[in-house]
Task: structure prediction
Amino acid sequence: MDQTPLADMKFETALAELEAIVASMEGGQLELDASIAAYKRGTELMKHCQAQLADAEAQIAVLENG
Result:
């Protein structure tokens, strides 16, 4: 699996990859090692998305407060 570095990912791209990981894990078709790698990547993607959302919220707060 070719993984784009998180620093280079837009929110929408990271979220789409995270959704694909969740779907593959829910399908139960991954071997144990692949499941562990997918879980690790998913955790990294989730943190990346949360950080981008926090940045967006901070920008909105600045705009609302002048």
Remarks:
- The helical segments are 11-26, 32-64.
- The first helix runs from residue 11 to 26.
- The mean pLDDT is 93.
- The two ends are 44 Å apart (CA to CA).
